[in-house]
Amino acid sequence: MLKALEGSQAIAETVMLCRPQVVAAYPITPQTHIVENIAKLVANGRMNCEFVSVESEFSAASLVLGAASAGSRCYTASASQGILLMSEVLYNIAGLRVPMVMTCANRAISAPLSIWNDQQDSMAVRDAGWIQLYCADNQEAVDTTIQAYRISEKTELPVMVCVDGFTLTHTLEPIDIPDQDMVDAFLPPFNFARALNPRNPISVGTLVSPDFYPEARHSHHHALLDAITDIVAADADWQELSGRSAGGLLAADGPDDARIGILTLGSIYGTLSAARDEYTDLPSTRLIRLRAYRPFPADALRRACEGLTDLIVLERALSPGYGGIVAAEVHSALAAMDSTPRIHSFAVGLGGRDIPLELYRKLHDTISSGEVAPFSIIDVDLDKLPMEDRGLGRAVNG
Amino acid sequence: MTMKLTRSGFALPGTTLSYRTGTWRTQRPQHLHSAAPCHAACPAGEDPQAYIALLDEGKPRQAWEKLVSANPMPAITGRVCPHPCEGGCNRGEYDSPLAIHSIERYLGDLALEKNWSYPVAVQTSGAARVAVIGAGPSGLSAAYHLTRMGLKATVFDRVTEIGGTLFSIPDYRLPRDVVRSELGRILATGIEFQPNHQLGRDIYLADLQQDFAAVYLAPGVMQSQDWSIDGVTPRDLHQGLQLLKQWGDVNSLPEMKSAAVIGGGNTAIDIARVLQYNGVKTHIVIHSSMPDPNNPLEDDMRAIPREIDQALEEGVQIHTHHGIKRLILRGEKVTGIEIVRMRKLRNEKGRLHRVAFEGTESILHVDQVIPAIGQVIDPTGMEKLLRNTSYFKIDAYGRVEGHNDIFAGGDAVEGNGGTVTEAVGNGRIAAEAIAATIRHQSLPSLDRGAAVTFDKLNMAYFEHGERAEQPILPVGQRTCEAEIEGDLTASQIAAEAHRCFACGNCMSCDNCWTLCPDSSVLKTQEIASDGSHYVFDYDYCKGCGLCANECPCGYIVMVDEL
Amino acid sequence: MSTQEISLEKLRVRQPRFEGIESGHRACLGCGEALAARLVTEAAGPDVMIANATGCLEIFTTPWPESAWRLPWMHSLFENTGAIAAGMESALKAQGKPTKVLAFGGDGGTFDIGFQALSGMLERGHNVLYVCFDNEAYMNTGIQRSSSTPHAAMTTTSPPGSERMGKRHLKKDILSIVASHHIPYAATSSVAYPSDIRKKVRRAIAIEGPTFMQIHCPCPLGWGHEGAHSIEVARLAVQTGLFPVIELERRELIGSMPIREPRPVTEYLAMQQRFRHLFAKNDSRAVEELAHIQALADHNIKHFNLRGEGADALDSEGADTVRRGGMRRS
Known about the structure:
The complex is a heterotrimer of chains A (398), B (562) and C (330).
Chain A: E1 2-6, H1 7-17, E2 22-25, H2 32-43, E3 50-53, H3 57-69, E4 74-78, H4 80-85, H5 87-95, E5 101-106, H6 120-124, E6 131-134, H7 138-155, E7 159-164, E8 172-176, H8 180-186, E9 203-204, H9 213-242, E10 250-253, E11 260-264, H10 268-278, E12 285-290, E13 292-294, H11 298-304, E14 310-315, H12 325-334, E15 342-347, H13 359-367, E16 376-377
Parallel strand pairs in A: 2-3, 2-4, 4-5, 5-7, 6-7, 11-12, 11-14, 14-15, 15-16
Antiparallel strand pairs in A: 1-8, 6-13, 10-12
Helix pairs in contact in A: 1-2, 1-7, 3-5, 7-9
Chain B: E1 27-31, H1 37-41, H2 48-56, H3 60-67, H4 74-80, H5 84-88, H6 100-114, E2 129-133, H7 137-148, E3 152-156, H8 176-187, E4 192-194, H9 205-211, E5 214-217, E6 223-224, H10 240-250, E7 258-262, H11 266-277, E8 281-285, H12 305-313, E9 317-319, E10 322-330, E11 333-346, E12 352-356, E13 362-364, E14 368-371, E15 375-376, H13 383-386, E16 406-408, H14 420-438, H15 490-498, H16 511-515, E17 521-523, E18 534-536, H17 546-550, E19 556-560
Parallel strand pairs in B: 2-3, 2-5, 3-4, 5-16, 7-8, 7-14, 8-9
Antiparallel strand pairs in B: 1-19, 6-15, 10-11, 11-12, 11-13, 17-18
Chain C: H1 8-13, H2 32-44, E1 48-52, H3 56-61, E2 73-75, H4 81-95, E3 100-106, H5 107-112, H6 115-123, E4 128-134, H7 174-179, E5 185-190, H8 194-206, E6 211-216, H9 220-223, H10 230-239, E7 246-249, E8 252-256, H11 265-269, H12 284-303
Parallel strand pairs in C: 1-2, 1-3, 3-4, 4-6, 5-6
Antiparallel strand pairs in C: 5-7, 7-8
């Protein structure tokens, strides 16, 4: 049913439809509205679950780990500092192959302190072993959250649904909230094979010696790679049920003859799409938005980049001292192509810096020389740099 | 077959059982059934720890049966034994020793009341026959044990009634009806009694040796020692033991106003107390001192300390460290004695001899002097055997020196302390040796093993509790007939039994089972081969020693395995 | 009398108690924590779910592929036991299942790194029994000081030397802190009193709401004594007054195990190598420390009203006076 809702409210209503039995809540901007909305739903009797206001994000993740291990579908949300604080638990959850879904309301990482949107937080935990899905708009956030439960419970891998903070969470727009019957038809009841049970008293979380640890990691890695199938299938099934795709592994749109591509994750796609419509004088551009980041959909990406001479990777995070994180992975994936496009890597919109339409022109200008542009934070204003940091960056990153 | 990981590395329950931590051990716990000090101290070989355990479990009959497997006359010894068991009782180092004496008496009296059968073997017609001389406690004990083991015992005595010197003990200490009742029941187990048979007159040792497989001699010491002071004896001399017998038999005593009893044993105390009851102002003169743990043993009076205390309460005057120097006579009757301070001291050769201290003389005005300085064997019929010695010399099994088929025990044996309990013990040991010899088996071991000392127990698990004391008639109420020391009630007895530490034996307290961090002590409903209800699981036991340290009874020891 | 052979395997299975932890675990000889955990699970029974912190107990019971536990059990991390347990409890509540959740942690995982999660769990009123196995240091990592380590004790991070006399700070009063959360039941106990442990576990489990137990567990390796002496050492800790055995309901002291014959602290300290610097000759610092520790013990005895009444010696309620046939007081 179409409703005009703030993104976080939509997510809260969606979580309710998925019928979790336990929800852990800890406030952190910009996900707080999600848990507040869930609290209201519980208080008004619309949602029947154990709503636990924990005392830190570490405990939030731990609480849902305990709940899922005891056989209940659960939910929590966090962002930024909270994601970092709970990072130890995130690795633990994934390594124990416990199914669950978490919303990450992407936000910049301190220091400097910032409450605004970028993707450093989810990028920082990309190796934790979770499935990471990035949503381009609030409808995708709703549909992806529902799909996430099915994917997670089928693969026994936890899923992080990344939703740009403020940009999506605090934006009011018309969103189609599915009805309960549709969600019930799509999601089977929670049934975790290794749930703890006095009738079958296994011991979970034991010390594993070097004789077996690599095998555990092998299984985990390949489970993630195999999850590509489940991510595709879930979206296909959802499309059949609801009439909408949530973006599959990735989505590419633009003329077939476009030779320039721009790869992004999350909501920045909307800005670029509007800019492309505005700046019709610029060369044809294929806009590729990556939804599945972990597992990394290398095959799909190669197909999406067929025929490109230049690919701009635009990300809202970086690895200080190296450069673009996603760009590096894209490089490595596209190296297997017969004809690899020039790959240009830029970070943009860090700490919530507004991304104007003009960025689109600037990107085209930057790559027009035919050379591979070096990595840069493309929207940096060098005049604002502190005195002692002017003159840095003469050693261009290799 | 390569082991496979489980997803997330979960493990199945209880699978550590496949790893046997027993390989970590350098020492292992073992059960060690040691003698409790009460057992080690009992001259009769009773195991009070064992029968008190049965009593504590609510099984008085089995307790009595265990008791009489060693000593068939607990109602008697429970009244007259000096109870060295209590002296050894480890509980004495914690609060107060167990009232084993009273427990023994209680069980003995209960058996009399309920007429419980003695646990003796069924006699077969072809059983070997053994002759016993003397129907006193030692002889009857030997006869009983022989019967218990399936042999046929025939007891000879020169008097009509069984009992021997037991009837010399006054009623207020040992009632005659108790003696008759208990000894009668012992006889009824199948012992043949031939009264009025004097050795050397009616029967002869050589014949007995021929007609019987073995002979046990327990004639007691029925002959008074000659006594005189400087060769002088009064015309109407009465020996202490004779007077007691006369008192016991016919309830009469010679006329006297005051008397001096010479001697420090139980006989001296008994006759002194009887006289005192009968209005005679009585003194005891003895060169020993009052019993005191700080004294050397040879200096102590031999009588049981509580008897001495009661004598003093009743008004008997005891002159310790004194001896008679001279009799004061008018004609041939005594009118007094001159006593002098005297002690037995060791000379340069280390031998004890009496030393009188000149200048310390004093006079006691008495009209009777009654020696109670000990008796000797009446050698009639045994002259060749004794060869002019005063007592039999025997080996550990009771065999008379130089003879394989003649055994001896009781007061007649050299070195005996003169107690009923020792006499009973002699009888048992000899009977078991006789039975083994006749049956061509090896002689039973006499070693009871080292007794468990207090430091091997763990007091953390016992609460303090004082022992129940026997009620004792106040002096004013005492007569010569009624028992002065009373029984404990059944609930007092139960409480006493509860206080037993079970030294060296398992009391099934569950400590080891409860405290093993490795669950390696297993409990069994059945009795395990070592007699306890616990089994060590050596597959997993790491040998930490917690069980041994926390065993309250000293029953678990750690043994090196390297 | 006939004899029969019974296999140990069969005998093990018919022990008259619930065995939550099996043999074959890798605990050190005489480990107090192993014993305590065994006693706790024995009293708790099979319908429980356990969240266990990182530490000795977790390590020695679950060397994959083996596990000593016969109960559903989970180890996540070092500092989140309270939260894991809270999650289990929330799930079981949502599912309508009566299974009780137990949280197990050492002193490190409870007093220090797991303190926050514990506090949150208690404050929110989760129906969980949290048991802290207190061996007074980070033992699994090789004997480092925690806030539970007693004053003047030696650990690898609080060694004595010319400038130091062992741990400078006092033992954190975790029970008061826990009780200040206004929970229905918080108690201390000691492995020297197994009946007391079992009784308190049953009491706590029967309560709907957060409950807490701190069990004193000697560590032979870390404290420096023979494994055979673990119970003796634990008993002395109680009898000196250094480890009061008490029960609090909400914040009120409602019970304490009385000490009839208090023992001087030196008896307790002398048994352990971790205090041997306090017995150094000609060291006035050592003399002062011994006096300080005695003062702490005396303070406890007064503050928690630990002197018993009555003529009989030994501790009464909860004391393990043995009876023939295995009947204890409680």
